[in-house]
Amino acid sequence: MDGEKKERLETLVAPFGREIRLDDVLFDSGMRLMRITIREGKRFTQFDIDAPTAEAWAQVMKLWAERERAREG
Question: What strands, in cross-sheet order, belong to the sheet with 4-14?
Fold first, then answer.
């Protein structure tokens, strides 16, 4: 997209052939967001989130992963 600088943070391979790309995006306005792009076959879903949203999402995902590891353990 025009007016933005993007840095790839990570590309994750997820179940069922999905790919998750995480990018740090700096817009010309100075706003910085994390762009999450999920590829499912030929379909792409993309959205941008701010730092507080990313932090809250990360916390929920971490707690869920810890709970699942304990169940498997």
Answer: 4-14, 18-27, 32-40, 43-49
